Amino acid sequence: MKVLNKLRLGVNIDHIATLRNARGTAWPDPLRAALLAEAAGADGITAHLREDRRHIQDADMDALCAGIGLPLNFECAPTDQMAEMALRLKPHAVCLVPEKREERTTEGGLDVATDEMRLAHYIAPLSAAGCRVSLFIGHDENQIRAAARIGAAVVELHTGHYSDLHAEGSLAQVEAELDALRKGAALAQSLGLEVHAGHGLTFENVTPIAAIPEITELNVGHFLIGEAVFLGLGNAIEEMRRLMDMARA
Questions:
Q1: What's the confidence (pLDDT) of residue 2?
Q2: pLDDT tens, 106-150?
Q3: Is residue 116 a contact partner of residue 124, using CB atoms and an 8 Å limit?
Q4: pTM value surpassing 0.90
Q5: ∠150-153-154 over CA atoms, to 5°?
Q6: Domain CATH for 200
């Protein structure tokens, strides 16, 4: 199968750490999961160091930076502590996300448009250190244009609403959300931004997102770790890789 405009797959390993932390042991090891993901065809590893350290820990970030051959995408909230960590580690990419202590998972995108000045000053030293800065945002035009204005290299479009509609909404609602994501991706690319997407993607809903030509990378985590219970992590990643490639073939 010839794949045109091949789409990269970033595997988020946060919930390997969630399993480990449930028992307070050293197993399962997020670094081992990252190495398995690499062997299975992942193009990058994502890890979200939350302020409350509910899954990934500081030591995990050190181990991942030292131990993997793939690019590391360091997900974090735009706080002073996380900036210090990122500048020390200098990962390939830093993806800035909104974060609330009470949420189960990231519920929406950054409001870049109302926080432009602070975020512009925040990302400047990260970019100067060689990190590709990504902003996790919705497909709203104002947010995309603000991301371009403040000098982000990448936007990652939040696909959570699409994923929820795919599971419970009408066909018309799904198509409307897909159309909005397509328009957002096209606008972002036209402004010189690299376009990624992620949140809530599964075997069942990934194909229409993977078919959006402007998107260059998908980041998938919770679903793959869940499927690993039944299929094994390598097999789950290989199946996601196959579906993504089919969408671009």
A1: 60
A2: 567 999 999 999 999 999 999 999 999 999 999 999 999 999 999
A3: no
A4: yes
A5: 110
A6: 3.20.20.70
Shortest CA distance to 75 belongs to which of 100, 99, 56, 94? 94
Is 152 part of any domain? yes
d(CA 150, CA 146): 6
Q: Is the dihedral of CA 228, 231, 233, 235 positive or negative?
A: negative
Residues sharing a CB contact under 8 Å with residue 53, sequence separation 6 or more, in sequence order: none
For residue 3, being part of any structural domain is answered with no
CB 137 within 8 A of CB 110: yes
Domain that holds residue 89: 8-248
Instruction: Indicate if 158 belongs to the active site.
Output: no
- What is the chain's mean pLDDT, rounded? 95
Query: Is residue 43 one of the residues assigned to a domain?
Result: yes
Residue in 15, 161, 196, 199 annotated catalytic: 199
Is 75 labeled as catalytic in the residue annotation? yes
Given 75, 99, 214, 227, which residue is catalytic?
A: 75
Q: Please tell me the distance from the alpha carbon of residue 10 to that of residue 95, in angstroms, as a whole number.
A: 12
Asked, for residue 2, whether it belongs to a domain, the answer is no
Measured CA to CA, the distance from residue 180 to residue 245 in angstroms comes to 23
How many angstroms from the chain centroid is the CA of residue 222? 11
> Out of 48, 55, 166, 196, which one is annotated catalytic?
48
